């Protein structure tokens, strides 16, 4: 090796060890077909990859995170997102796997809300309530891939224009979903939306995590921290009662790390009974912030994989995979059962349009809705010596 080559190798190694930007460390983005819809439209898959062995695949149906591959502490890679290998699964039984959910994520009581004195109705698809925007929410539509970029941060931008009256919501809403992956193993999902008339907006991502690897079985050993002093209890239909209840002394206190499975079957807590486990909003703050703040930390002791989740949203919906019933075979042909995943969705509080104490989900013309979610991934591998 020449002296120049040795110097380049040492510089590259230093960049990796110290997390410094390096021209040689360029994340990449590639596109391919993921299949064709029954009406003939093509679904695109975009894969973002970095030099640390992390790759994220996004499909244009539902602006969906279809795969996230990351190494463990021994360098062994696994896909940590539940979902399907082919388009057919997402069409037959989508289950919101990795999908973008909206116009209004989470539940709206009885599918009704009022805006400027007028009552609007959106389809009821979850008991008596509307869930994740209705029967044809953002998870079930084909998004346009606007741009795909390589660079220090690889990026894919997708767009969907939701027409006035879509699922009962007023106003034409233009939405962007921006996925990016950098060399520091930060996977960022950002949603932006604008409207041509007053409407309500709450968009999130419904990634199903199992840091042992999808199909590896239970995720109840994942150790979870949520820096929330309160949560919003629900009624038997999982609509918030309006109360801000302290987590202290309850199964909902994750201010210190706890394994998810430690209290997930605590039938002495009526809230756990209602949700069949956790399916509740945690109060991180009362308002949207300009900058992201820590929402959760997840650690998987066996693999060493972990992540921190940061967002500018006030609420975090934590769902412990309670409704997976053994009828779905995922990417590795393993059966997905209750408790095989956890879902963490930064968003406004559920049913905000009908709960004045929760704030507002209103978006005006000239304003931009924004939800930024940053997943700071870690493999648990020892860092190189400096």
Automatic annotation (TrEMBL):
The active site is at 206 (proton donor), 345 (proton acceptor). Residues 1-26 form the signal peptide. It is an enzyme of class 5 (isomerase). The keyword Signal applies. Gene3D superfamilies: 2.70.98.10. Keywords: Carbohydrate metabolism, Isomerase, Signal. This is Aldose 1-epimerase. It comes from Pelagerythrobacter aerophilus.
